[in-house]
Specification:
Helix content: 40-55%
Number of strands: 12
CATH architecture of the largest domain: 3-Layer(aba) Sandwich
Mean pLDDT: 97
CATH superfamily of the largest domain: NadA-like
Strand content: 5-15%
Bound molecules: 1,3-dihydroxyacetonephosphate, iron/sulfur cluster
CATH class of the largest domain: Alpha Beta
Structural class: alpha/beta
Oligomer: single chain
Number of helices: 16
Length: 334
């Protein structure tokens, strides 16, 4: 029987730590519970492949926000990280948003504490404020418009050339957008611990080994890695390029979870993850995304906990820049 109130041990751990009943098939049970409770399961490309397989929808951060904004489900299960769950809750305040493990944070979002960002914004009153979606709801509350890696360039370009801009929190994405738009946005000094770790040296070695391979790079990577790219783009852009391309080998510099969908959509092609610089492991994984497991999704649906809650006053402010992003993206056909 579902427990209506969370146990102290769950609160302490940040997830439901109940044992999984013996002999059940987790995938089947999750799908059964989702149907019974009218829940939609949304998954980012970086979560474990088994979760991508049982999700109702798998996408990049823009597509996930768009999906949440239009769903008629009663419950949204976010298989991703905390800021994604917050975005869903802000867009759907009347729905239950389940985050199967509250420890699934994002180092990039955490690199931009709301109070410090507010001081930065206050110190530059003549600047408009653009925030990457990888921010907490509290940071979004100090923002004029939110962007994702899919729409950042177009949204920046939608401001008049003379408009002074702040861009936070990702210094790599900000520098990349500055370089392709010719803008001089003031950058917050934040970064993602996964994308910062790609090894330029190992990428160059791989390119020597696979000279015809195309290099796919997420714009959160550091400048020297971005410079070697044949395509710089969001997870969805990298995926679409790889699937449609006439080429058959790709070196992929983003979190290695994306390879699951790349390989599923183009089984005949070869996708090689670019390794991080500080390990012998071939893959570069986001430890936060990998906290979400089938067992935690099952238990969170079963007990309808942990939920994402966003204070009403934060919600009221943060919803505006998120809605602005969705409106502009719709106008742009993104
Ligand atoms: P996308 O917008 O490409 O999905 O990126 C999200 C993310 O967290 C990248 O690290
Ligand atoms: Fe955040 Fe980096 Fe993980 Fe993306 S890969 S969720 S930016 S920590």
């Amino acid at each position: 029987m579902p427990t209506p109130t969370p146990k102290p041990s769950w609160i302490e751990k940040g997830y439901v730590d109940e044992p999984i009943p013996a002999g059940i098939d987790l995938k089947t049970e999750i799908r059964r519970l989702a149907q019974e409770k009218n829940a939609v399961i949304l998954a980012h490309y970086y979560v474990d492949g088994a979760l991508q397989d049982i999700a109702d929808f798998v996408g990049d951060s823009l597509a996930l926000a768009q999906k949440a904004a239009t769903t008629d489900a009663d419950i949204i299960v976010m298989c991703g990280v905390h800021f994604m769950g917050e975005t869903d809750k802000i867009l759907c305040p009347d729905k239950t948003v389940l985050m199967p493990d509250l420890n699934a944070l994002c180092s990039l979002a955490e690199s931009c504490p709301a109070e410090s960002f507010a001081d930065f914004v206050k110190a530059h009153p003549d600047h408009k404020v653009i925030s990457y979606v990888n921010t907490t709801a509290a940071t979004k509350a100090y923002t004029d418009v939110v962007v994702t890696s899919t729409n950042a360039r177009q949204i920046v370009e939608s401001f008049p050339k003379e408009q002074k801009l702040i861009f936070g929190p990702d210094r790599n994405l900000g520098a990349y957008i500055n370089s392709v738009t010719g803008r001089d946005m003031l950058l917050w000094d934040g970064a993602c611990h996964v994308h910062e770790r790609f090894s330029l040296e190992k990428l160059v070695d791989l390119k020597r080994q696979y000279p015809t391979a195309k290099i796919l790079v997420h714009p959160e990577c550091q400048g020297p890695v971005v410079k070697l790219a044949d395509l710089v783009g969001s997870t969805a852009a990298l995926l679409n390029y790889a699937v449609r391309s006439e080429h058959d080998t790709f070196l992929v510099a983003t979190e290695s979870g994306i390879l699951h969908e790349m390989q599923r959509q183009a089984p005949q092609k070869q996708f090689i993850p670019v390794p991080p610089d500080d390990s012998t492991c071939a893959c570069n994984e986001c430890n936060y995304m990998k906290l979400i497991t089938l067992a935690k999704v099952y238990n969170s649906l079963r007990y309808e906990w942990p939920t994402i809650e966003v204070p009403a006053e934060v919600c009221e402010k943060a919803v505006q820049p998120i809605r602005r992003m969705l409106d502009i993206s719709r106008e742009l056909g993104l």
